[in-house]
Amino acid sequence: MSGGDRSLQRWAFGVEYDGRDYNGWQRQKDGASVQAELEQALGFVAGHPVELHCAGRTDAGVHATGQVIHLDTTAAREERNWLLGGNAQLPASISLQWARAVPLSFHARFSARGRRYRYLIANQPMRPAIQASGLAWWRYSLDAQRMHEAAQGFVGTHDFSSLRAAACQAKSAIKTVHAISVTREGRYLILDVHANAFLHHMVRNIAGVLLPIGQGKRDADWVREVLEARDRRASGITAPAGGLYLVGVDYDPAFGLPDSAPCTIARIGL
Asked: 132 and 240 share a domain?
């Protein structure tokens, strides 16, 4: 590593992680967190304690292929120093993918224009064993096209109160879903959701509405009924965390940040 100090510099990083061994992104008093592991590793490279800010605070068991974080430092380091030094200090379940010096006006969370999540479902009679922590499982046959058509009812700006967790701390339940799709690859269903921001458990609760529709137990109109109720009790289950991935964050191209690598069935070894 290069030594010496300089004026305050902000660095942004792309991160991917397997969330199964962590109690979510956020640092906490008890239990492992992704934030704590990264702060230890990047603090080692910086030579001083660092505080990280992220684009999306993922829950326990949730994964990421496109998380974005930032830190401030006066230490003079190059991209290569951050990546090689940081990854050498990190457990195998967390990896820095890129590093970029950014202006102090950049903020991983508040500069984000949108976020993209992907939810992977193994649709088969028996539970999977290979890569099971990276999948949700639904044993009953699902109609992906029926789910996709019903999901279009979530597109647009809505009050998503029926799809937020009781512990959600967001000031407003009004969010804008830019696009949503459900597709099938063999035995796997893929739910993609792109929105300006998300409530706590919002994607997993969207999945909880679409699953019984795909199974034929609910009509497509149930999406509208759930949104209009503005009541979590009127909605469906909270689908399991294991199949959920934060796959990308949208920023102004002027920041020059790389695109995240796609989260595909092949990429996670299925």
From this structure: yes
How far apart CA 160 and CA 203 sit, in angstroms, is 11
In tens, the pLDDT along 118-145 reads 999 999 999 999 888 899 999 999 999 9
Question: Is the same domain home to 93 and 136?
Answer: no
Residue 263 binned pLDDT confidence (cut-offs 50, 70, 90): low
Do 107 and 57 share a structural domain? yes
Contact 93, 226 (CB under 8 A): no
Direct distance between the N- and C-terminal alpha carbons of the chain, in angstroms, rounded to an integer = 38
Alpha carbons 61 and 132: distance in angstroms, whole number: 12
CA 217 from centre of chain: 29
The β-bridge partners of 144 are none
- What is the domain count for the chain? 2
Residue found under tokens 């401030």? 72
Q: What domain range is 92 assigned to?
A: 7-111
Which sequence positions are flagged as catalytic?
59
Which of 130 and 232 is assigned the larger pLDDT?
A: 232
| 2 confidence band (pLDDT: 50, 70, 90) | very low
The token pair that represents 249 in the structure block: 């964050």
**Backbone phi, then psi, for 113, in 5-degree steps?**
-95, -20
